[in-house]
């Protein structure tokens, strides 16, 4: 009995894995049945205690709990839309709660596209397949329904195609005439109503079709040296080949969880976010690229696996990026050179300053007194600051000497700088001082 249960769970897990690939962004047509789903490992079935599953949709930047209606139904790992409407576009997430903690399991961005009123398909909701003429090929219908009793109809260029009703449309030998747009329509019965889901493929058959090219992620697993607190931008680019694969999906995972999307508003950005997917064409080659922006690297980021996933044509490629602390870097050349120049110039400048201060100390003192208006001789108890002595008794001084001693010196030192001079002829009264005799030659 245990083996039977295990076998049934294995089959269920395999079917769920087929229906629930890891996709960050999903496109669906309005008015069609659709569901979001996530994978749970069988180990969780045995180990998890009682828990509840909650589905959320982002509304005005906040997570709002989704309540079941007749149109939106939650069943175990599935959130079903009967049918999807334009208003369902947005960001979705699912959480497990054990009553103490909530764990976010997966996140999606759902884009509900408007139906083309004049056609049976929307050109933004199709995949392209390019094949060589003369080879065999089969087109596969959507996996949105696993009920073998559901009615299936194939259309080519919106016209019923040879009454085909199988899930796969087989071509034993392709010809150029097989080129066209094929739409598979599945009718699904639910509570007495009929809903439908479509899958559209553009088939291009060429006589000498170019090689599609190997699907691959540019670059290999790598470790990036960085520092705590530094901003980092991780790039992931996928090579799609020589035509744009509309079903290609490129996204980042952080320890197997989807990061938040960047808002474009710097002050509102989360600490780690993923920028919008971009499609590129270089020459005749097609690429998709996405960036993961880390605002400030933390110590926790050093222990995370940043995984870039590329999916297309049921193939998956991945690249793992890890961060590690870099070695202490040498000073840049320009900073080192500047430091050495300053180290040499500083002693020279210091010596020059000392030399100027010694040579022009008197001028500097006078300049200081003139600027600060301070008299350091005031209050020192001395009547005079200086005595002016010149030859006047032995010879008759010239008018220039006399004028310098009696006029110029007092004018400069007394009037401008506040010094008080003792000049014999002016300040010593007759008989009040001793005559100083000088020898004359």
Automatic annotation (TrEMBL):
Annotated SMART domains: IG
Domain Ig-like as annotated: residue spans: 21-111, 134-186, 210-321
Alphabetical keyword list: Disulfide bond, Glycoprotein, Hydrolase, Immunoglobulin domain, Membrane, NAD, Repeat, Signal, Transmembrane, Transmembrane helix
Pfam families: Ig_2
GO biological process, one term: positive regulation of type II interferon production
Residue ranges annotated for the TIR domain, each copy included: 382-441
Transmembrane segments: 335-360
Organism of origin: Accipiter nisus
Family statement: Belongs to the interleukin-1 receptor family.
Name listed for the protein in its UniProt record: Interleukin-18 receptor 1
């Amino acid at each position: 009995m245990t083996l039977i249960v295990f076998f049934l769970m294995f089959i269920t897990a395999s079917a769920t894995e087929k229906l629930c690939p890891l996709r960050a962004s999903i496109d669906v047509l309005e008015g069609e049945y659709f569901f979001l789903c996530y994978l749970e490992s069988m180990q969780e079935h045995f180990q998890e205690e009682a828990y509840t599953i909650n589905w959320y949709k982002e509304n005005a930047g906040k997570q709002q709990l989704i309540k079941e209606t007749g149109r939106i139904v939650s069943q175990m790992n599935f959130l079903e839309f009967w049918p999807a409407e334009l208003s369902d576009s947005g960001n979705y997430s699912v959480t497990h709660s054990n009553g103490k903690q909530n764990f976010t399991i997966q996140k999606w961005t759902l884009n509900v596209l408007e139906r083309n009123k004049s056609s049976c398909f929307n050109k933004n909701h199709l995949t392209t397949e390019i094949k060589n003429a003369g080879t065999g090929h089969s087109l596969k219908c959507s996996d949105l329904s696993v009920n073998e009793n559901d009615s299936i109809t194939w259309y080519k260029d919106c016209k019923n195609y040879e009454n085909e009703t199988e899930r796969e449309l087989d071509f034993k030998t392709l010809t150029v005439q097989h080129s066209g747009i094929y739409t598979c329509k599945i009718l699904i019965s639910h509570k007495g109503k009929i809903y439908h889901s479509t899958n559209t493929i553009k088939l291009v058959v060429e006589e000498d079709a170019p090689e599609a090219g190997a699907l691959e992620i540019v670059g290999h697993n790598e470790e990036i040296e960085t520092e705590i607190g530094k901003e980092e931008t991780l790039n992931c680019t996928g090579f799609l080949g020589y035509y744009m694969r509309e079903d290609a999906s490129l996204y980042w995972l952080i320890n197997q969880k989807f990061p938040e999307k960047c808002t474009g508003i710097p002050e509102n950005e989360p600490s780690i976010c993923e920028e919008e997917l971009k499609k590129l064409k270089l020459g005749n080659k097609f690429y998709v690229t996405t960036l993961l922006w880390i605002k400030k690297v933390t110590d926790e980021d050093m222990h995370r696996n940043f995984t870039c996933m590329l999916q297309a044509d049921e193939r998956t490629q991945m690249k793992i990026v890890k961060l590690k602390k870099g070695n202490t870097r040498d000073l840049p050349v320009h900073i080192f050179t500047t430091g050495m120049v300053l180290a040499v110039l500083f002693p020279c400048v210091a010596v020059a300053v000392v030399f100027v201060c010694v040579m022009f100390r008197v001028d500097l003192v006078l300049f200081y007194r003139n600027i600060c208006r301070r008299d350091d001789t005031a209050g020192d108890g001395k009547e005079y600051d200086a005595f002016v002595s010149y030859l006047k008794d032995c010879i008759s001084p010239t008018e220039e000497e006399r004028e310098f001693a009696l006029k110029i010196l007092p004018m400069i030192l007394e009037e401008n700088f506040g010094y008080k001079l003792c000049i014999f002829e002016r300040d010593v009264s007759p008989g009040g001082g001793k005559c100083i005799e000088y020898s004359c030659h």
